[in-house]
Design a protein that fits this description.
Ribonucleotide Reductase, subunit A, two-stranded antiparallel sheet, 2 strands, single chain, binds fe (ii) ion, mainly alpha
C-alpha cells in the first residue's frame, strides 16, 4: 500500500492553527462563578474606596457663585449637552441593573454607580443655572423635553454591555478632562480660548475622577471576561468598537450641534475616540493590534475538549493573553489584601483560580 504523505503546506497550515496553549479545564459554569465572585469582591472594594475618597456633594462641594456668568455660547452648548447625557442616569441604571440582575455584585454595583452618575447630572444642572446663560424657565423646559425621552441599551446581553461601558466611561472621562483643559484657559479653539474658569476646572476634574473610577471597575470586569472567556469576549469587544456611539445623543434636542461643538473644540470627536479612548482601553485589555484582532476573530479559535464541548484557546492575532492574566492576578492580590483587612478572608476569601488557558 502506498503511504500517503501529507503535503508540507498542509502540515504547516495545521501547525499554524494549533493553539499555542493547552485548552482550558474549567467548565463554563465554573468560569461564570469565578467572574461573579471576583465582581462581588471588587464591588465591595469599590464602595469602600468610593465612600472614603469621592464623597463630594453637587451643592456643597463647590462655590457656585464664583462660576463665571459670561461664558461663550460654545461653552454653554457643551455644558447643556453633557447635562443632557448625564440626565439619563435613571435609565442607564435601570437597564443595566436589570440586565445584570443575576449577578449580586454587578447588579448592586450598578445601583452605586447610578448614584454617582446622578450626582453628575445635578452638578451640570447647577452649572447651567449658575452660568446664567439661560433663564431658569428655559432650563426647566429643556429638562422637561429630556425627560420625555427614554434611553434604550445599545446591547441586550451582559457581555456586550460589559465591553460597551469600558469604552463609554473612558470616552466620558476624556470629555471631562478636556472640559477641565479649556476651563484652565489652555484651549486655543474658537469659542474656548477665553474660557478660563477655576470653579469649572474643579467641577470637571471632580467628575473626571469619578469617571476614571467607573472606567477602572468596568475594565477589571472586562479583563475577568477576557481571562475566562477570551474568544467570546474578544468577539463582543470587536462588535462594540464597531458600533460605539456616545449614549443618548439622539435624545438631545440638538445633539448634532452639541457633537459638532465638541468636535470643533477638540473635546471629543473621531480623532479623540481613536487615539485617547480606543488605543488606551485596548492596551489595558491586552489588545495590541486592533486590525489584526478584527481579521483574526473571523476564524474559529475554539478547540474541542475531552467531553466534546468546545473549549477556548487563547491564541488570537493582536491580543496578548498574558497581559490580561497579569492584570487579573494583580486584581486578586488587591482583593485579598482588602478581604484580609476586613476579616472576610478568614471566612469566605475570594481566591484566584487559573483559567488553565495560559499553560502557566
Ligand atoms: Fe458621569
Ligand atoms: Fe461614569
Amino acid at each position: 500500500m502506498p503511504i500517503t504523505k501529507p503535503e508540507e503546506s498542509i502540515i504547516k497550515e495545521i501547525e499554524e492553527q494549533r493553539p499555542s496553549y493547552p485548552v482550558g479545564i474549567l467548565s463554563r459554569q465554573e468560569r461564570d462563578l469565578l467572574i461573579e465572585r471576583g465582581a462581588r469582591s471588587l464591588y465591595r472594594w469599590y464602595t469602600t474606596r468610593s465612600q472614603k475618597t469621592r464623597s463630594w456633594h453637587p451643592d456643597h462641594s463647590f462655590n457656585w457663585r464664583a462660576l463665571r456668568t459670561d461664558h461663550s455660547p460654545e461653552v454653554n452648548t457643551v455644558i447643556e449637552g453633557v447635562y443632557g447625557i448625564e440626565n439619563y442616569a435613571p435609565d442607564y441604571t435601570t437597564r443595566a441593573t436589570h440586565m445584570l440582575r443575576k449577578s449580586y455584585g454587578r447588579a448592586n454595583f450598578q445601583l452605586r454607580w447610578g448614584a454617582e452618575e446622578e450626582k453628575h447630572s445635578d452638578l451640570w444642572l447647577n452649572c447651567m443655572l449658575f452660568m446664567r446663560f439661560r433663564t431658569p424657565e428655559w432650563i426647566e423646559d429643556y429638562m422637561h423635553y429630556l425627560r420625555n425621552g427614554e434611553w434604550q441599551a445599545p446591547w441586550e446581553d451582559p457581555l456586550h454591555l460589559s465591553m460597551y461601558v469600558v469604552i463609554q466611561e473612558r470616552a466620558t472621562q476624556l470629555t471631562y478632562l478636556n472640559i477641565a483643559l479649556f476651563a484652565r484657559g489652555e484651549s486655543d479653539k474658537p469659542g474656548f480660548e477665553g474660557a478660563a474658569d477655576p470653579e469649572l476646572v474643579k467641577i470637571a476634574q471632580t467628575i473626571a475622577i469619578d469617571e476614571a473610577a467607573h472606567y477602572n471597575f468596568f475594565l477589571e470586569i472586562a479583563r475577568l471576561y477576557l481571562y475566562y472567556f477570551p474568544a467570546q469576549t474578544l468577539d463582543a469587544l470587536v462588535d462594540t468598537i464597531k458600533h460605539f456611539a456616545m449614549p443618548a445623543l439622539h435624545l438631545l434636542p440638538d445633539g448634532d450641534k452639541f457633537m459638532e461643538t465638541m468636535y470643533r473644540g477638540g473635546i471629543y470627536g473621531g480623532r479623540e475616540y481613536v487615539t485617547d479612548v480606543l488605543k488606551i482601553a485596548l492596551k489595558h485589555l491586552g489588545v495590541n493590534d486592533r486590525r489584526a484582532l478584527e481579521r483574526g476573530i473571523k476564524r474559529s479559535r475554539q478547540a474541542p475538549g475531552p467531553d466534546g464541548e468546545m473549549r477556548e484557546t487563547t491564541f488570537f492575532d493582536g491580543f496578548e493573553y498574558d497581559v490580561v492574566e497579569t492584570s487579573v492576578k494583580r486584581l486578586y492580590g488587591r482583593l485579598k489584601e482588602y478581604e484580609e483587612e476586613v476579616g472576610l478572608a478568614d471566612i469566605i476569601p475570594t481566591q484566584f483560580v487559573p483559567s488553565g488557558l495560559s499553560g502557566s
